[in-house]
Amino acid sequence: MTSAFQYREDCYRKWRKAYEFYKIRYWIEHQQARATLRRLISQRLKRFDASAASNEDGRVKPIFTTPSGPQDASNTMAQRLQHTFNGDIRSDSPPPPIVLPSLAPFVNDPPFTIDSINTVMNILLFRKAPGVDHLRFETLRPL
Q1: Are 121 and 140 spatial neighbours (Cβ–Cβ below 8 Å)?
Q2: Within 13 A of 82's CA, how many CA atoms are on the CB side?
Q3: CB 11 within 8 Å of CB 30
Q4: CA-to-CA distance for 51 and 45, rounded, in angstroms?
Q5: CB of 35 within 8 A of CB of 6?
Q6: pLDDT at 122
């Protein structure tokens, strides 16, 4: 299947680079390679579905089993899940406090004044590409 995928990709690259009548030839090859790859994928999926999904009578096969039977398997799985999610792993001590950065330098002396922000907002133009922060002027204007 890997070789079929690679052949399809090669045909696609040849088609993209081809000129005039060669473009038609490589497009047809690409379409044939694409159909072949799809057919291989669907055959593989059908084979997987037939082997893993059900028994002869159409019932789903159990995936987790024990020698004692399906009821014991479900009890074992329930005990495992109960042990995993009951909270025994957690510690009783509280989590460490979150330390936030200090805003002390900007409390008395902010980096921008309201007047400088208003001046810049009046200079900016509509329908321009966003900057590094991906914010457009139209989103900032109502603020």
Answers
A1: yes
A2: 6
A3: yes
A4: 10
A5: no
A6: 80
Q: Confirm whether pTM is higher than 0.85.
A: no
Q: At what angle do helices 2-17 and 21-52 cross, to 10 degrees?
A: 160
pLDDT at 84: 76
Q: Which of these, 119, 113, 115, 121, lies nearest to 140 by C-alpha position?
A: 121
Confirm if 37 and 4 have CB atoms less than 8 A apart: yes
For residue 62, give every residue at least 6 positions away whose Cβ sits within 8 Å of its Cβ, in sequence order, or none: 70, 73
Spatial distance between the Cα atoms of 34 and 82, rounded to a whole number of angstroms: 48
**How far, in Å, are 12, 20, 37, 48, 85 from residue 23 at the CA level?**
10, 6, 21, 37, 60
Strand, coil or helix: 54: strand
Tokens at 17, concatenated: 């680079």
Mean pLDDT of 84-113: 68
Q: Which residue has the tokens 């009046």?
A: 122
pLDDT of residue 140: 76
Q: What radius of gyration, in Å, describes the C-alpha atoms of the chain?
A: 32
For 31, how many CA atoms within 13 A lie in the half-sphere containing its CB?
6
